[in-house]
Amino acid sequence: MVVKQSDNGTWFTQFRCKDKFGNEVHKYKRGFSTPEEAQAWEEDFIASAGCTMAMTFGEFFQVYAADVRPRLREHTWRQKEYTIKSKILPFFEKKRMAEISSLDIVRWQNELMSPDANDGKGYSPTYLRTVNNQLTAILNHAARFYGLNPNPAVRTMKMGSKDTKEMNFWTKEEYLKFADVMMESPMFFVIFEILYWTGIREGELLALTPDSFDWSRNTMRIDKSYQRLGGRDVITDPKTPKSIRTVKLPNFLAETIRDYLSKHPKIGSGDRMFPVSKSQLSRVMKRGSEKAGVKRIRIHDLRHSHVSLLIDMGFSAVAIADRMGHESSDITFRYAHLFPNIQDDMANGLDNERGGF
Question: Residue 84's closest CA among 124, 47, 156, 132?
């Protein structure tokens, strides 16, 4: 790296470095009034080009986005990007990566954990943990691939909690009250019947087409998901590879769906069966809950309701996980409190294994 004076009295800098993509960069810049100006321009360029961790956090976020975005579903990236831009960049954007300290992270956490945050409402522990994980992911990426050392996230405690709130779900009796009300709206009745009796996700439901069903076996194939992104209808892969599955339908539900399709012959084999939005579904569910006199829950809580029903019916975590598109360990962990008398059963089983005295 060279800073020299030109014949006309001004200063210039000339250097080579590798950018964030590993490409060789050769720069020559002249016209500086002082050598200090030339040196400062050189340092700023090297930082912004990704050659060193002297770049700012805001500049590294662009590097991180270029690396990570192609690997994520569009909806997932949009959520991630919103969280970073609204909760992380305002604090860290101008800080140079190499100068971010563990204390900076603690002070940022304290701001978000303050009771005055979020217009005096505060943030939930699970949301705080989500935000914290986004910052940690960026710093870990910088440490793993771009030489950030030390990683300031290593020495800090995570804020928030990964524990979710008490799980909401409807009992079968509560759902049947709601379903009676929904019979006034045939399409929404079919929608909620599918959601409750199969436990599929909302996006999976809204991506269903007549081609999704095999009526010779009464099965429903889940291999896509619906999102509304930037005013566009977007069909994507399901949430995880495990989510791709075939769900066996009870006979009564298969008949209900076939009857719905027979009354809507204009729905083509590859057309969405239910051309409604998630917000519309939420509004319909809210009104129906009030009219039926049952507690209000989220659309996603119908998935919890289905799992609860299957547990009450005596099915194992492995069988339930296969139907839901989960790992069995996820079912065991998330719904352990719903499995009846499991500790008693374990203790009694161990008694039988040991034998009496």
Answer: 132
